[in-house]
């Protein structure tokens, strides 16, 4: 087991990061890189600060966690602060007090070597001429090139009962919860991976990404969702930065009406749905939801 500096455990949230060849989990939630800023907010809460120099930086002071990124939907790694000796301005105010393990070995130690775990990389960050790391970085292994299975994005008929939707906007809100927040609906759709996989024509995201791409929209319309997952939905939270919308419209600005919920018929399929926050919906939808006992509000 790799050991490091012994630090007192922080009160409150304790972050557990586990890494192996198959996946990375943070507090038992599987994460993949690149990762979206919204996903980090779901994991760690609202950040203490965000600033911009050469890159954007986001910091969680109490957790000792921070990240640098060029675009908020393409964050390549997360950093966990071990030492503030150099007192850079973007460092968190506190040290990371959680636990990071690779293959069940705790690695908070200046002696551990870099781990390249196929898709991911775990490494210490040190300054030139120094041994002790100031942070541990966990993120995408840029040397790994994954081949997308030929059948990954083929729509397959479920050999079980599925949810029938009457409203596409409502279905997208459910996909956001099940696919991107709860990781229960697979595969997790990635626009760039889909475009590279698609062989019926060449899709140019840089040219076509300002409007919904028909093949992408069709994929989500055809996607089948097992009825057994309906009970997992307790809340819907729409935001223009939701992963599902960013994959549907790469260069969306948040004002689009393509995915407005137009009716509340599909609510009957989700018996545990109690709370809804909306930004893509017709005006009457909020009142209709309130009338049937769901706590509903605009974003």
Structure, described:
- There is one protein chain.
- Helices cover 19% and strands 20% of the residues.
- It is an alpha+beta fold.
- It has two domains: 16-140, no CATH class; 168-298, no CATH class.
- A seven-stranded antiparallel β-sheet has the order 4-5-6-7-12-11-10, with no helix packed on it. A five-stranded mixed β-sheet has the order 3-2-1-8-9, with no helix packed on it.
Main features:
seven-stranded antiparallel sheet; 299 residues; globular; 7 helices; five-stranded mixed sheet; disordered N terminus; alpha+beta
- As a percent range, the share of helical residues equals 10-25%
SSE arrangement, N to C: EEEHEEEEEEEEEHHHHEHEHE
Read across the widest sheet, the strand sequence of neighbours is: 4-5-6-7-12-11-10
> Number of DSSP helices?
7
How much is the average pLDDT?
89
Number of β-strand runs: 15
Structural class: alpha+beta
Shape: globular
**Number of spatially distinct domains:** 2
Give the biggest sheet: 7 strands, antiparallel
The end-to-end span amounts to: 47 Å
Rg, nearest Å:
21 Å
Strand content: 15-25%
Low-confidence segments, ≥5 residues, pLDDT <50?
A: 1-12
């Amino acid at each position: 087991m790799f050991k490091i500096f012994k630090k007192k455990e922080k009160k409150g949230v304790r972050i557990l990061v586990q890494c192996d060849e198959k996946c990375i989990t943070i507090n038992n939630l599987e994460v993949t890189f690149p990762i979206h800023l919204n996903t980090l907010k779901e994991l760690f809460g609202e950040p203490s600060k965000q600033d911009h120099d050469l890159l954007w930086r986001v910091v969680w002071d109490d957790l000792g966690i921070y990240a640098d990124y060029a675009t908020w939907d393409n964050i390549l790694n997360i950093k966990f602060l071990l030492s503030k000796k150099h007192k850079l301005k973007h460092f968190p105010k506190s040290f990371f007090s959680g636990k990071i393990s690779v293959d069940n070995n705790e690695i908070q130690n200046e002696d551990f070597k870099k781990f390249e775990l196929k898709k991911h990389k775990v490494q210490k960050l040190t300054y030139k001429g120094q041994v002790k790391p100031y942070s541990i970085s966990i993120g995408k292994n840029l040397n790994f090139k994954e081949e997308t299975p030929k059948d990954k994005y083929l729509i397959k008929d479920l050999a079980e009962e599925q949810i029938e939707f009457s409203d596409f906007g409502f279905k997208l809100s459910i996909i956001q919860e099940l696919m991107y927040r709860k990781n229960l609906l697979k595969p997790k759709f990635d626009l760039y991976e889909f475009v590279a996989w698609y062989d019926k024509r060449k899709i140019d995201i840089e040219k076509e990404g300002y409007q919904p791409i028909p093949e992408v929209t069709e994929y989500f319309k055809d996607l089948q969702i097992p009825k057994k997952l309906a009970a997992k939905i307790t809340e819907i939270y729409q935001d223009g930065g939701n992963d599902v919308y960013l994959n549907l419209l790469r260069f969306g600005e948040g004002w689009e009406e393509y995915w407005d919920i137009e009716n509340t018929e599909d609510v009957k399929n989700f018996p545990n749905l109690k709370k809804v926050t909306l930004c893509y919906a017709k005006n009457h939808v909020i009142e209709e939801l309130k009338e049937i006992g769901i706590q509903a509000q605009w974003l």
